[in-house]
Amino acid sequence: MGEFMMKKWTKTIALSLAAIGSVVGLAACGKSTTSSKLTTVTVGGIGSDYQTWVHIAKTPQAKKLGLKLDVKEVTVGKQLNDETANGDIDVNAFQSYAFFLAYNKETKGKKIAALGTTYLEPVGIYSNKYKSIKSLPDKATIGISSNPANGARELLLLQKAGIIKLKKGFDTFGTTRDITSNPKHVQIKEINEDSAARFLDDFDAVLISNTIALEAKLNVLKDSIYYEKADDSTKDNINILATTAKQKNNKTYKKLVKLYRDPAIQKWIKKEFGGTKVEVKKPLNYLEK
Length: 289
Hints:
Blueprint: H1 3-36, E1 39-45, H2 48-57, H3 60-64, E2 67-73, H4 77-85, E3 91-96, H5 97-106, E4 112-120, E5 124-126, E6 141-145, H6 148-160, E7 165-166, E8 179-181, E9 187-191, E10 205-208, H7 210-215, H8 220-223, E11 226-227, E12 238-244, H9 251-260, H10 263-272, E13 278-279, H11 284-288
Parallel strand pairs: 1-2, 1-3, 6-9, 6-10
Antiparallel strand pairs: 3-12, 4-12, 4-13, 5-10, 5-11, 7-8
């Protein structure tokens, strides 16, 4: 091979390698650009809320909003709020506005903030012994949550059902000491809400949150003898997304509220949970009034 041909051959190989390197480089840059468009947000959930956000994380709607959701399950509400307040979890999905208020009042550490409303999940009164609220007998034993915020919510439901009367101004921080009338002399006992469904054979009636009811294969709209309705009197029971107080105006986190309300996602939620998560589109100031 002549010197001229050798130089030409060497130059051709060099140009080819350079071209290949450029293609690889462009491919790598393309991958990096695509990844950089997605912002990772860690979402914490409990029970059906965890299940919901695992589904949402896989949807094209999440990617369209530029979100990559890392969904984690935590089984205890206070722990989930603690981790959110400390920044270990960016956003959590599990609690009512009343639970949120109680947490911020009771905690001595960092506070959390509401991002937006999601749904009302009715608490139901269930009974294995009686088929209607009116058939509950005198001195009936009724189980309510030992959690202060949820217990207060359940006392309000008992009042709505006509079982008891509570003092005027009863709110999220009320207790059984605020009962002013108990014509049937029902015995109200506090129980661990996480295992509330297990008490159905021991009590005449048990109040159960929908998250726990779903785990026990109970549909509040069909299986309870009485349940909460969505109106102004139950607005404190509307569920919210929450984050650390410093991030309450985070625009990326706010996208999760929009994402939750997407029609296709709502259709899945309605089917998956038998209509027991009633969508709420109210702004946060509706809860704050």
